[in-house]
Structure formats: structure tokens, C-alpha cells
Amino acid sequence: MIVTAAELFKVAYGKFAVGAYNINNMEQTHGLFRGGIQSQSPFIIQISKGARKYADKRMLEAMIRAAEAIYPEAVFVVHLDHGDEETCYDCIDSGFYSSVMIDASHEPFEKNVEITRRVVERAHAKGVSVEAELGMLGGVEEDVKVEEGHACLTDPEQAKEFVRLTGCDSLACAIGTSHGAYKFKGKQSIRFDVLEKIQKNLPGFPLVMHGSSSVPKSEIMRINAAGGKLDPSACGVDDNEYLPAAKLGVTKINIDTDGRLVWTRVHREYLRDHPEEFDFRGPGRVFMTEYANFIASRSEKLGSANTLSEVRNSILELRKNKAA
């Protein structure tokens, strides 16, 4: 069942966060849906501009439609990740996406408000949720590249004004996390002091945390043992901080790098251990299982595991009341 982010966040707010995962191919799609069912958790499918170019947006949409039929129990959002204004409109007008992110965070405050407001008006007319961003995370994620010196935390006072002026449904905040696998040098942590101030200024309003992969040391070590050359000092957000953040209004947590690490580890180890193999379906099958297990493990950390029935029933009730 495809739902909007706004519907899902009403159920999740203050209780748990929903994992948002980027997909690019069939194996990731199967793994994500299986992991959601395995952990009885809703999830958010994120499609980036890079994925739309890589796989073709029609291919991605067809895979998601097929997965919806294969896994009818699943409850999920189809979300555009880090969209510009033109891409947001394309997704809104497609009638397929239930949520879009307009990322104008690199613009001055007034310009960000102006662009976001236009997207909100267009999206809400079609029943589509809108995520916006204020503040800038450092690091690299496909088309998003911000030098560390240009990163800036979200101002809690500006956040309140931004939401009032734009009418967005959720707000991605810069609270100490960063994009990319090599983002951190040394210990990093969510700036809970900033998060608390933002929630105080925006009580009940859904917040989003980007750059939230944990970058497990075990994955880095296994990849390098199988021939990889990843930076062993790379590390991410402590996954034990996910649920405390959810209690402070973070309803969506973006996790992409960790999934890429699982893919890399599975394929490097499989090809190392089966040098005679040339059938790509071998590592593909292993990856789908490993990725499903990874998604299920994240659901536990996010607090969303075993909420699927509650989420479905609550959203159906919300829709029923809205139609009455």
C-alpha cells in the first residue's frame, strides 16, 4: 500500500522513526520489501536524480509496482530524494510519487522559501507530501556536494519561520550528520541540543535526518579483507541514537551508505570465495537476503519494527475520516 509521508508521519510522530532507503535496481527493491515484511515495519523508498538517470524512471516505477503486487502486505512511501524544482514537478505530475523533497538549502533563506512554496502549492494540489531542507549537511551524495567549511546547522528560529512561510510537510535539518561514507573523522554525534530547540519551536512537526548511516566498522573491515580499499577511519551515526532522535520529532531517517556497504561486501566476498563463478545471480541472491536482514535490523533500531498492522489500520482510519 502506497501512502503519503504526511499520513505515515502522523502515526509515527514521537513514537518511532521510519527508515528511508535509496534503490537503484531489482535486488535492492526485493531486499527492501522483504526486510520491511520481515520486521513488520513501514518504510520509505527513496529515488534520487542519479537513480532516475541510471535505471530510467520508468524502470524504477515498474519495479516498485511489481513489488507492491508481490508484497501486498507492505506499507511504504515513494519519495523523490534531493530533487530540484524541475524534477519535483516531473514526479508530482507523474501521479506515481506520494512524496517529494525539494532541496533548495544551498540558496539564501528567502530564495529557499520562494522555491519551496511553489513546489508545495503544486504538490498539495495533487495530494503529494513535500519535504524541504534548511541548513546544509557536509559531504557528498550523488548530486549533493557540500564542502565541510560550507556546512551549517539549522537555525531553530529560522526553522519555525521557514515552515510557516512554505507550508511544507516535513523539514530536513542539519543537526550534525553528513552525507557519504567518508564523512567523519573521529567521533560524531547528533546535536541533540539543536534538535531539542527545533522541536520546541515546531512542536508536533515531522523532522527528517539525512546522512544517518552508521558505517559499521565490521563492514569496512570485511570489504577491505576481500580486496577493498575503503578508509578504515570512516564512521557514521551511532544507530543507538536513532530512537532518542525519534522521540524528539525525527520521523524519517535516511540510510543509504550502509546499504551500499552491504552490496560491496557481499559481492567482494562472493567473487573472492567463488572465483570460478560468472553468474551474477549467485551474489544477487545473497545480497537480497543480506539486505533484507539489514533493513530488518535498522527497523529495530528505529523503533518501527512490529508496527505495520497499527500503521496500516491508522492510515486507513485517517483516510476514512477525511472522506467522511
Helix-strand topology string: HEHEHEHEHEEEHEHEHHEHHH
Span of the ends, CA to CA: 21 Å
The major sheet is characterized as: 8 strands, parallel, barrel
> How are strands sequenced across the largest beta sheet?
1-2-3-4-5-8-9-10
* CATH top level label: Alpha Beta
Shape: globular
Work out the radius of gyration. 19 Å
Instruction: Just name the CATH architecture.
Output: Alpha-Beta Barrel
Mean of the pLDDT scores? Answer: 92
CATH topology: TIM Barrel
Number of domains: 1
Percent of residues in beta strands? 5-15%
Give the helix proportion (percent range): 40-55%
> CATH homologous superfamily, by name?
Aldolase class I
Parts with pLDDT < 50 across at least 5 consecutive residues = 146-150
Strand count: 10
Output the structural class: alpha/beta
With helices defined by DSSP (H or I, 4 residues minimum), what is the helix count?
A: 12
What brief labels describe this structure?
globular; Aldolase_TIM; 15% strand; aldehyde-lyase activity; eight-stranded parallel beta barrel; 12 helices; Class_II_FBP_aldolase; alpha/beta; TIM Barrel; zinc; 324 residues
Question: Can you describe this structure?
Answer:
- There is one protein chain.
- The chain has helices spanning 5-12, 26-39, 49-70, 85-94, 109-124, 156-166, 192-201, 217-225, 242-247, 257-273, 281-302, 308-323, and strands at 18-22, 43-48, 76-83, 99-102, 129-134, 139-141, 144-146, 170-173, 207-209, 250-254.
- It is an alpha/beta fold.
- The chain has a single domain (5-323), classed as Alpha-Beta Barrel (TIM Barrel).
- Strands 1-2-3-4-5-8-9-10 form an eight-stranded parallel beta barrel, surrounded by seven helices. A two-stranded antiparallel sheet has the order 6-7.
- α2 packs parallel to α11.
- The protein is globular and about 60 Å long.
- Mean pLDDT is 92; it is low at 146-150.
- InterPro entries: Aldolase_TIM, Class_II_FBP_aldolase, FBA_II.
